[in-house]
Amino acid sequence: MQSTASSTVSTPKRTIRIVSRKSQLALIQTHWVRDELQRHFPELAFEVVTMDTQGDKVLDVSLSKIGDKGLFTQELEDSMLRGDSDFAVHSLKDLPTRLPQGLMLGCVTKREDPADALVMHEKNKDKTLATLPEGAVIGTSSLRRLAQLRHHYPHLTFKDIRGNLNTRLRKLDEGGYDGIILAVAGLQRMDMGDRIHEILPADISLHAVGQGALGIECRAGDEEILALLSVLSDAPTTARCLAERAFLRELEGGCQVPIGVNTVLEDDTLTLTGLVASLDGQRVIQNTVQGPAQTADDLGTQLAKQLRAEGAQVILDEITAESR
Ligand code: DPM
Question: Distance from the CA of 30 to the CA of which of 150, 197, 214, 321 falls in 20 to 30 A?
């Protein structure tokens, strides 16, 4: 053994490739991950590779019609499987609950506020969802938000809205809508928290599975990458999101359904509330389970089965039949 002393100066840094969508929000999230890892691992180089996904390209069709199977993730996954990149940063709620063979959820980062927010048009700034006039137009392409808001505010009408956050806010400002519903987390990450008019409480709108957290996906069993990602992993968020994802996995078929959740973790006790609603908002099946955080996955599955038995199955079947 000789000449270890001279090797440190000249060895090129090992480069880790991170793959991301190109939207401003996706890049903010990816750059945050890159900067955190760079701080922890100064001996490595991190490079961001960007790609468009089907969800970025197909903007004229409503989200619920294209189906959600990897709409925002597949191109990034193919890149990792080819070996062109090492991991992908996603909004966890955009990551399907079943991942392609060869890939895994490598880590879940600390969650921000997972709630939904109302962004109002200027002209309605003295109003709330409850006091908007009959027929006021709210923009969302989320069946979950649609069904829950229809349930609570039958006087409102709902209109699809697609595009990235900037596009949606522009469409609102241009007068196409009285208000739009967006995730608090996305607005805050883009430094647009000041546009939030009202945060929807859990008794009005349960959030989407994984909302507000980042999910980092990598090749299954890639120990080098998993070791790096472990520094970004947040245990409470992971437990909550594993329960939420197990709940969704057990319920979902091939199409989008209004499904919402809420989780609370207190002293290792996880409380999971889940909801399945009919599209018209008339029927809401909701219940809550509680148990040790280590059993997160089982809690999610258990709640899903419970809701099915309590009437969610009928709703799921109806929506599957309609979307054929
Ligand atoms: C998914 C949904 C939406 C996104 C459906 C849902 C919202 C679509 C819409 C699965 N992905 O939430 O019920 O309202 O038209 C998305 C956003 C974020 C991640 C934007 C948003 C940022 C927040 C986060 C789009 N994905 O929900 O306002 O990290 O959770």
Answer: 197
